[in-house]
Each structure stands twice: as structure tokens, then as C-alpha cells.
């Protein structure tokens, strides 16, 4: 690990699993009783806004009952102490990386704790429910706020910044993601082509494991603190 300067880290639901946040594709293939495609598309939202709003209201409220785990804390420590470029890209819509203290952080799939007004296009930090049609704090319009979440068929956020960081990365680390959803599942290839070393940390082999230089199997709460120690004290 001695010649590494620029690091890009991608996290998925597995990094929050030990905090008690359910993953999207568990053993039953369901996310809190739903197929993820049945609640996470703009089409379903147009057809049944109440279902989608109350589903995401429950996910937002559940954040009050979970805490960052050792993996989130270790990544925040790496962010604070790594002297070169580092970018943490999360697919997670929870706020556990933020609460652990990570600063160089992008939420490429949006955030539960943000509301997006379809009337004025502003985004507002949001803690409460959206299913009761609250007014937008920016423009006052009622019934136009939706979860600020990137649904299937929508463009993930900050792709330019992510592409730039991947093209300069010396090390790309993917943690706790199944590799089912693009473009995130393709980051390993972009980093590889740019000459980065690629490392995956996951409880089980993922769809993309064969495309990494190295895969380490185990819980993120153990593997991530060990990797951070390895990087900070080579
Ligand atoms: P998945 O639920 O598809 O995959 C979770 C991954 O975490 C699996 O590969 C598990 O093996 C791994 N895992 C579970 N527990 C773990 C632990 N304790 N330590 C390490 N790994 C563990 O979740 P994602 O890959 O994040 O998008 O899903 C990607 C996207 O699909 C999500 O961002 C979401 C969904 O559609 C949106 O909601 C927009």
C-alpha cells in the first residue's frame, strides 16, 4: 500500500448492515417486504404516490433507531487522516457516513434526509414525513415534495466528479455492494482501466468479485477498520 495516493471508495448497503439497516437484496430478495423495483421508480411514484411516500417515510424515521458502526467510523478516520485525495461515494441513502463524520462524501443515489421540490426544483434537508403533503420551505407549494432519492431510470448524482476521481485513482475499494446496479457496478472497470489497484470487501462473493484484483470476505465492521489501519500505518 506504500505507493497509493488517490483513493476512491464505493459503499453499498452491506456497510450499514451491522448497524441494523436492512440491505436491498436479502435472502428473501425483498427490501422491507417489497421488491426494490416496486417502490423505487418514478412510474410507481406517479401511479401510487402514497405507497412510495409512506414507504420512504418509514425508512427515514427508522434512521433515528440506528447508529454508525465500526466500518463507518473507520472510513471517517481515514477521511480525516489521509493526506492525499480521497473520495467516498456511497449508494446508501442513510446518513450513517455523515453521522460518523466523513466529509469527502458523495451520496450518488440521493439521501432519505433530503426532500426535492418538483415545483421549484430546490432540495431541502428533511427530517419528518412527506406523505402528509407538507409545503416546500423554498416556494410554499404543497404536494410537490418527493424523496431526494435516485430511482431506477434516473441519473445518479455527481457522476462527473466520480468519473474524474476514478480516472486518477491509485486504489479503488468497493465495500458491501452486490454489483447489481449500474453505473456503480462499473466503477471497478473504470478504475482498473485507469491503472488503479482494485479491492473488494464483502460478506459474500458479489456479481463483480471476479473483476477485482483482490476480494476479502467478511463483515465490513471487521474488514474496514483493518484496511484503514493498513492504509494509515503501512
Ligand atoms: P444489495 O442489497 O444489493 O447488496 C448488499 C451487499 O452487502 C451484498 O453483496 C451482501 O453480501 C453485502 N453485505 C451484507 N452484509 C454485509 C456485512 N456485514 N459486511 C459486508 N458486506 C455485507 O445493496 P447494494 O449493492 O447497495 O438503490 O444495492 C445497490 C442499489 O440497489 C441501492 O443503492 C439501491 C438499490 O436499488 C436505490 O435505492 C436508488
Fold and architecture overview:
The mean pLDDT is 95. It contains 9 helices and 9 strands. By secondary structure, the protein is an alpha/beta fold. The chain has helices at 14-17, 36-39, 42-47, 49-62, 70-81, 96-100, 159-167, 187-193, 220-232, and strands at residues 7-11, 86-90, 105-107, 110-117, 123-125, 145-149, 171-175, 197-202, 214-217. Helix 5 (70-81) packs parallel to helix 9. The chain has a 6-stranded parallel β-sheet, sandwiched between helices. A 3-stranded antiparallel β-sheet has the order 5-4-6. It binds 2'-O-acetyl adenosine-5-diphosphoribose. 2'-O-acetyl adenosine-5-diphosphoribose (OAD) is lined by residues 12-14, 17-18, 23-25, 36, 40, 91, 109, 149-150, 176-178, 180-181, 202-204, 206, 219-220.
**Largest sheet composition:** 6 strands, parallel
**Overall helicity:** 25-40%
Coarse structural class:
alpha/beta
The residue ranges in which pLDDT falls below 50 over 5 or more consecutive positions are: none
Rounded average pLDDT:
95
Please give the radius of gyration in angstroms. Answer: 18 Å
Ligands: 2'-O-acetyl adenosine-5-diphosphoribose
> What is the assembly state of the chains in this entry?
single chain
Query: Which outline best applies?
Result: globular
Counted beta strands = 9
Strand order of the largest sheet: 3-2-1-7-8-9
